[in-house]
Structure to design on (72 residues):
């Protein structure tokens, strides 16, 4: 285990049990999301082309809106 992760676990161990449980749950969710992302990237490239075409069609149909970083 890398030193930074060891330090994070050491600090987390100082938290009350309920906060440790919450932190652990959040970490597990994050790790699962990483796995899902990796699986998505391993899908056939044609699937991404289809998603891109769908996104462009929605944009050309006026179904999208410009991203406003101030509203994030």
């Amino acid at each position: 285990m890398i030193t930074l992760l060891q330090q994070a676990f050491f600090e987390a161990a100082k938290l009350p049990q309920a906060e440790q449980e919450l932190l652990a749950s959040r970490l597990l969710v994050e790790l699962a999301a990483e796995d899902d992302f990796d699986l998505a990237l391993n899908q056939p490239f044609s699937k991404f082309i289809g998603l891109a075409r769908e996104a462009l069609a929605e944009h050309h149909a006026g179904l999208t809106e410009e991203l406003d970083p101030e509203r994030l």
Summary: The mean pLDDT is 87.
